[in-house]
Design a protein that fits this description.
alpha+beta, Pseudouridine synthase, Structural Genomics Hypothetical 15.5 Kd Protein In mrcA-pckA Intergenic Region, Chain A, 2 domains, three-stranded antiparallel beta sheet, 25% helix, globular
Length: 346
């Protein structure tokens, strides 16, 4: 970074800290004596997450113009987007539902676009939430301003330490989004990021949607996003592979490997095939590649076959690798990285 950029970022950190003190927001503190060996188990949290990712549809600080560094707009979000397709049943349907089913945005984001006059049906701007159109013949378009608003939404990578919950913390818990503050920004990988985006990211981290939870005792990569459609595609998309490095309490035998890579039932439901590798002969360390994330899946499956997980570390989601991101740090994903997640979730 240039000296001017460093001075600007230092000023940004100082202002953010002053604002946080005025708002009486406590700093995040992870207990130093937290023991990973006392893990209770869980690859995925029990906490409930709505498929639209908690987004309330409001414009969270975007000025609607997008960003020069992140200006590429998804083809589905361009002003030429249309609903016409034989994939839909015949008849009338709400415009917001059509846009959400197309993956252009979440249902709540569609409702906000309509309220702001950023959606056209057959060339006419609509503002009525209950507006319906023919799903196969009418043309539904998001305006260029609407596309810019959608593409301006931020997506972050966070390296969650054990001891934090992914979302919806109880009174005595701390959410992983609390990491997203200026002092934890991994600037080495964000030299291209505009200062306005850094301010937006840290202004209210609780607004971000979690794309695939990690339980309190697990650590590693979390994806947080303002983009409701992206959150839904990552959570529900079986094409988005998630990679974990798992340490067990005993040596992994060949019989374990056959069981883990075979047909596995959990709660009476057959899981999608897991790709499990042993990292070293007779090792206690495994690599899991999953295309779904059932509740505490990895830990429960290991327990089923006589192995107890003592450390669970998620290192990759789709093409997003945790890389050199330090534990307890965060960074903003590039437009290409976001596009790769969107493509994998289709």
């Amino acid at each position: 970074m240039s000296r001017a950029s460093v001075r600007s970022f230092n000023a940004f950190v100082a202002l953010a800290r002053c604002a946080r003190r005025r708002a009486h927001r406590p700093n995040v503190a992870v207990r130093a004596d937290y023991s990973r060996s006392n893990a209770r188990g869980g690859g995925e949290s029990r906490r409930v997450e709505r498929d639209d990712g908690r987004s309330d549809g409001r414009d969270r600080g975007s000025d609607g113009r997008g960003r020069s560094e992140r200006s590429r707009v998804s083809p589905q979000r361009s002003s030429g987007f249309t609903s016409a397709s034989n994939a839909f049943p015949e008849g009338l349907e709400r415009v917001s539902k059509i846009l959400a089913r197309r993956g252009a945005c979440s249902r709540r984001e569609a409702e906000q676009l309509i309220a702001d006059g950023r959606v056209r049906v057959n060339g006419t701007v609509i503002t009525e939430q209950g507006h319906k159109c023919d799903v196969n013949s009418d043309r539904v378009e998001i305006t260029s301003d609407g596309s810019a608003w959608l593409s301006s939404k931020l997506t972050l990578a966070v390296n969650k330490p054990p001891g934090l919950v992914s979302n919806l913390p109880s009174a005595d818990e701390v959410a992983a989004c609390s990491i997203v503050e200026p002092s934890n920004a991994w600037m080495r990988s964000m030299k291209w990021v505009a200062m306005d985006d850094l301010r937006r990211a840290t202004s209210d981290p609780s607004r971000f949607n979690v794309c695939g939870r990690l339980d309190k005792d697990s650590r590693g990569l979390l994806i947080l996003t303002e983009d409701g459609a992206l959150a839904r595609s990552v959570i529900g998309g079986n094409g988005v592979v998630k990679r974990y490095v798992v340490t067990t309490d005993a040596d992994v035998r060949e019989s374990h490997m056959q069981s883990l890579n075979g047909t596995v039932m959990l709660d009476g439901v057959e899981l999608l095939p897991m790709n499990v590798k042993r990292l070293g002969r007779g090792s206690r360390t495994l690599e899991f590649n999953l295309r779904e994330g059932k509740n505490r899946q990895i830990r429960r499956v290991c327990e089923k076959f006589g192995l107890r997980v003592v450390d669970l570390h998620r290192v990759q989601i789709g093409e997003i690798d945790i890389g050199d991101l330090p534990e307890g740090a965060w960074r903003i994903l590039s437009e290409d990285e976001v596009a790769s997640l969107r493509d994998a979730g289709r």
